[in-house]
Amino acid sequence: MGSLDKSSGSEVVTIDVVEAKHLIQSGYVYIDVRTVEEYKKGHVEAEKILVIPYMFNTPEGRVKNPEFLKEVLAFCKEEDPLVVGCQSGVRSLYATADLLKLGFKNVSNMGGGYLAWTGKGFGIKTEEPAVLQDKPKEL
Fold first, then answer.
1. Could you give the CA distance from residue 111 to residue 113 in angstroms, rounded to a whole number?
2. CB 56 within 8 A of CB 139
3. Closest by alpha carbon to 43, among 31, 56, 27, 28?
4. In what residue span(s) does the Rhodanese domain sit (predicted)?
5. What is the structure's pLDDT at 138?
6. Which positions are catalytic?
7. Among the listed residues 97, 12, 11, the one whose alpha carbon sits nearest the alpha carbon of residue 54
């Protein structure tokens, strides 16, 4: 797994879904950085969950959400304990690194993402998110 380098303060710590589930159940905020469309299809069961996409799907492909850090700061303080997850663990890795660079102190990347979570048979939900940050799609 990852290691924590106290001197740099910006090395990403990746935890497995078992540890992530334990942290989420102990009160950590879970930030789902997938798109709202992905979230609606199913998401991690967590009491404190935010949907803040790290990337948006556009006709040109995926683009980074320029407001990502601002949106996280609107809901979370730098001291808040956070677990960041996505579909397979790639976007959450980059999102976690960005949060650490911004000064967040207690943030972990959920390795393997939602796919690993469901692979363990952990609880999921398919309801509408409380916080919709995605842009509506044109039909």
1. 5
2. no
3. 31
4. 24-126
5. 45
6. 86
7. 97
Q: Residue 107, class by beta-carbon neighbours within 10 Å (0-12 exposed, 13-18 middle, 19+ buried)? A: buried
- Arithmetic mean of pLDDT over the chain: 88
pLDDT digits (tens, 9 = 90+) for 85-98: 999 999 999 999 99
pTM for the full model? Answer: 0.84
Structure tokens at 64: 């980074």
- Tokens standing for residue 111: 């390795």
pLDDT tier at 49, thresholds 50, 70, 90: very high
Region 123-135: what's the mean pLDDT?
65
- Helix residue spans in the chain (DSSP H): 17-25, 36-41, 68-75, 90-102, 113-119
Looking at residues 44-51, what average pLDDT do you find? Answer: 96
Domains of the chain (ranges; CATH) run 14-123 (3.40.250.10)
Q: H or E stretch including 131?
A: none
Q: Give the per-residue SS3 of 49-72.
A: EEECCCEEEECCEEEECCCHHHHH
